[in-house]
Amino acid sequence: MPAPGDLTATDNCAGDITATGVDTVDDTDPCNILITRTWTFTDACGNSASVSQNITVSDTTAPTAPAAPADIAYQCSADVPAPGDLTATDNCAGDITATGVDTVDDTDPCNILITRTWTFTDACGNSASVSQNITVSDTTAPELITELQAEITVTCTEVPEAPELTFMDNCSSEVSVEFSEESTFDGTANDYEIIREWTASDSCGNTSVFSQTIFVTIENNTTTLSEDRCNDGGIIDLYDYVETTSDASDWVVVSGNVNLIDGTFDPSELAGNDYVFSYTVTSDLGCVSTTEVTISVIDCIVLPCTGEDVVISKTVTPNGDQWNQYFEVTGIEGCNYVIDVQIYNRWGALIYESHNYQNNWDGSASSSIGNADKVPNGTYYYIVNLKNSGLKPFTGPIYFGTK
Hints:
The chain is mainly beta. Helices cover 0% and strands 48% of the residues.
């Protein structure tokens, strides 16, 4: 609004009289102000005249809003930045700054629409606004963060357990994992494959699949055993020679004319001959284990040996002095007994075993002892079973020392 200007009146005596307007302001409503601008002309004798102008001031113009930021999309809600400030220009108030306000439609939590609005309002309620559309849509599948070999070649004895994998998702803290494993093993001695798959899914149904292929080669391990058995020693059970059996496997006669019944046979009429038998077991992983047993059936002359005839070593000291060099079971040399020996340490662990003992154990260490040639000095415990003797097993302690 301009400042009051001057007006000039004409007086009959004084001539031109100039006066400046005077404003009377009614700003009860600051958005609708009424101004009465009056010019009063008074001559030297106090005669006066006046004119008035009514001026109304009403702000009806909204602020001029700036351009809104461009629409934008994010994968995760956590990626969306906080609303910033924008500044508009008002015809009366000047600059007006506003902070964006979000209206969120999360009806579908995997496809969220955010309308971010900046509203600029002047003192008289005139307003203008601009908006930005923000979409939040998770389309990224979980990632594998642990190492996984895609292909492995192993033997059937080395097939590893399925590893525990860790996955990470860009938005969700929880990832569901489904594991599956398929094998092409057909029960034969053919090499085969194991295919493992992990399917990782986030809460929005984005999935990723990771796989591992294991190429498995078959091993065939053969154990060969031989033993002399007396023809009058009773029924021979071939299952005594194997540790692992299978309902799908049977003993097979490789050599010799003998009738097997459920893996057993009667040697009473078979003296003087060797018989070879084979037993093959295939594990769930395809490993083939074959035990081949040769039984020499002999005509035994059994002397009247008793338990009192048996002499068992109490000490083994393999120090080269020719005394107590071996653990020995003597006194039954003419009885044709087959000696079965088991030796345990003080913790009950089996450290030596023979099903046809020949008095030849000198304390030699098995692979379970470590790198030492002999077992440590100390007391051990034996079980001696004289097969086909009718005698109960003999048990007792034995001291082993190298001095």
